[in-house]
């Protein structure tokens, strides 16, 4: 059956792309994106504009420096509260999530979850605000779909055939 979505959240630390082709498919169908600014998201921004999506988190060029800051990098109070709730079993499965909580609470938050959390909440709030303004949301959705032509499968396959596989299309025999 047909399915639809108003907002697709692609939650990956910059440099660890969540799902570029997935983002493009959602975009073509009028779904808005909430995502970090890297990989395919950068290409999408070039086509539809950052104002038609909800961006959050560290930029690709910031990630390594942020990782090097390690323990001195402070997570937001909101993030600490959520991790504490998970650790205390508020959502169930207390023992199952212990190693995850240990990782993100320590100075070893490789994926910068603590750093990106406040920015994510801001992007989510912006999406919530845009959603209740039907005219704004509809305009963003239309512009997203209208700007997504670059991501068609025909163009992508042609580009792969030419640049990656080094093959030419066959001519129709009749």
TrEMBL record:
Top EC class of this enzyme: transferase
Pfam family, one: Phosphorylase
UniProt KW Transcription keyword: no
Keywords associated with the record: Carbohydrate metabolism, Glycosyltransferase, Pyridoxal phosphate, Transferase
Catalyzed reactions per annotation: [(1->4)-alpha-D-glucosyl](n) + phosphate = [(1->4)-alpha-D-glucosyl](n-1) + alpha-D-glucose 1-phosphate
GO cellular component, one term: cytoplasm
E.C. number: 2.4.1.1
InterPro entries: Glyco_trans_35, Pyridoxal_P_attach_site
Domain of life: Eukaryota
GO molecular function (one): glycogen phosphorylase activity
SUPFAM superfamilies: UDP-Glycosyltransferase/glycogen phosphorylase (SSF53756)
Entry cofactors: pyridoxal 5'-phosphate
A single GO BP: glycogen catabolic process
Function: Allosteric enzyme that catalyzes the rate-limiting step in glycogen catabolism, the phosphorolytic cleavage of glycogen to produce glucose-1-phosphate, and plays a central role in maintaining cellular and organismal glucose homeostasis.
The family this protein is said to belong to: Belongs to the glycogen phosphorylase family.
PANTHER family: ALPHA-1,4 GLUCAN PHOSPHORYLASE (PTHR11468:SF30), GLYCOGEN PHOSPHORYLASE (PTHR11468)
Name of this protein: Alpha-1,4 glucan phosphorylase
Taxonomic path: Eukaryota, Viridiplantae, Streptophyta, Embryophyta, Tracheophyta
